[in-house]
Amino acid sequence: MSETPHDLQAASPFNVKAGLSTLHARLGTPIWLILATIVAIAVTVPQNLTDHLLFAGTSLVNIGPFLLLSVAIASYLKASGADTIVARAFEGSPTRAILIASMFGALSPFCSCGVIPIVAGLLAGGVPLAPVLAFCIASPIMDPEMFILTAAGINPEFAVMKTIAAITMGLLSGFATQMLAKTGALENGLKDIAKPSCGTSSCGPKTPGVTWAFWKRAEGTKTFVTAGGDALWFLGRWLAFAFLLEGLMITYVPADNVASLLGNDNAFALPLAAIIGIPTYMNGYAAIPLVNGLLDLGMGTATGLTFMLAGSATSIPAAIGFWSLVKPKIFALYLSYAVSGSLIIGYAVKLFVT
What b/e readout covers 305-327, taking b as 16+ CB neighbours within 10 angstroms? Predict the structure, then answer.
């Protein structure tokens, strides 16, 4: 039976809603933010629109080679299966596991979104909470892509400091959790979805196999191309939006205000950076040009590092994902590690480095 005009009209709102939902999913949040920013510039200061677009485009082209290199590295690790080596970080004694988890977390190619499935599997496999939290804190802060882009977008010294900070924050979080666990304060802290299915760590993750010549592995080339395309699309959109914001900051944010609020002369600059970083942090990659722009406007190096550390560890994907696995007392502990760890690193950098 054919549809009547009334039936087609009734179905139209649903089709429009589904179409808009599909369009949003394909473009993603950063594209809509870019479009909204462009419209805002065109309405308020149309004479500067071309300059802002040229600044963002030129900045994106300049960082392009580093972006392609970082994506290629991450795609290779994923296609070869080397990204699953993270499971090895949790073998052995708890102390050794914390040490390796912190280092591996800072050096592994996992974004904040990719960390949570691993954390869920480790908790469900019976891995102790201390090394898992060490990994969970360190991993969103730094990875190979982030290191390359930070070195190119800010400077190599800042990238090295951020890497050392990620490892240090992981160690502090892991050992603090280990001591708290001995008191019994953290018992019954996992939600049902993350509780171990057995009482020992023998049901934990198995050592994965790696095919370094990934093109010899089934689906290896397809994985490399797909992962590379997804990463390039993800990073490219966020960086484009970030460069657009950086241009706006340079043009319209008074340097004197930034220097007085977040500069080295303000005794509260570091706490402000940590507190502001948690709710306002958009994305680790997008933060690179934004922090670089603030540094150019007078923000201290220690303050910029504190902002990035607190924001990275508590980025929205990581925080929401971790909340789904643990009860409030463990989540509060996770947030306290992000704030206190970033402040400790910030003050250390301010006192001994800058």
Answer: bbbbbbbbbbbeebbebbbebbe
